[in-house]
Amino acid sequence: MKNMTNLKKRFFGIASVLAITTTGLVAVPTVANANPVCTNKVIFTECVGVTSDNAPYIFQIPAKFSGTFFLFSHGYRYPINIPASIPLVGGYTVTNTPQPTGGRSAAEIQEVALGMLTKGYGIGGSGFARQGWNVDSGLKTNVELIGIIKKQFPTVTKVVAWGESLGAFITQALSENHSNLINAAGNLCPAAGSPEASVKLAGDALWGIKTMFDPSIQGGNYKSVLEVYADIGRVLTVAGAMQAAIVANPTFPAWPATATNVPAAIKSAIPSRSALVLVAAMAGLPTQSASFDGATGPGPQGTLIATQFAHLQLVLLKLLVNQLQGRGFRRH
Prior knowledge:
Blueprint: H1 2-21, E1 37-40, E2 44-50, E3 56-62, E4 68-73, H2 106-118, E5 122-126, H3 135-152, E6 158-164, H4 166-177, E7 184-188, H5 195-212, H6 225-248, H7 264-269, H8 272-283, H9 304-325
Parallel strand pairs: 4-5, 4-6, 6-7
Antiparallel strand pairs: 1-2, 2-3, 3-5
């Protein structure tokens, strides 16, 4: 019982320290390429600093260090502020806060960090010097950061590079161009291989949504960022209308009111889900999501309800989930 009590105290001690250290940085050097500022947190040592290209970083080494360090590269972050009036993505302010592990929220990052540190792994990552499509900049930062980490902690014997979305592509570039610096690489949900490929993929989806669901979408030749925001709003409005239509009638969802260029005869003969599937397939959107495995549905397998779900609703729902969550063409 005493050992269990000590274990609980240790666990909550780590959690409380992580809550402080992973949500905010203090005493970060303001001079690029200065030596990192390291603080002994008893359970681990935390170091913060700035690389020569002004990318802030953080890394943490546990007291019982295994020698293996995980270098994380975060995904795409918008390079401009987005007004709060834009649905889903609105209220975003450009940031280059360092991210030591994967996770979509501060709570997830803290949870992953806790798990890795308690297993003896070192963790760390940067916020990169600039946001947007930054593979070249991210690659440069990571190469320099590996050198900083190994200089500060010579006990590092293995470096595992990992990242998600655009960070996965940065990780891939690191493994291809500097394989001598790392021992393994993990690419999670990697982005398209170039900004041109991403733009083409997004353009296909935008053209399809404009043609099928809302001809008022401009779709290009923007004269200001406000016109871009307006199009984002129209696309998200279509997505919301489709979501509501699917909930109301999964088998034959209605067409959005904005689909004014689609003849009534087509609307009455073809469900809007068919048009959505066509647009998604044309844009190369994944047909699996975190919510649907692509095979199972409600009811016993082999029954009519399960078969109808798999062949009618499932594909549409997976594509819609991916569209709303940005998988495939919005956020990499």
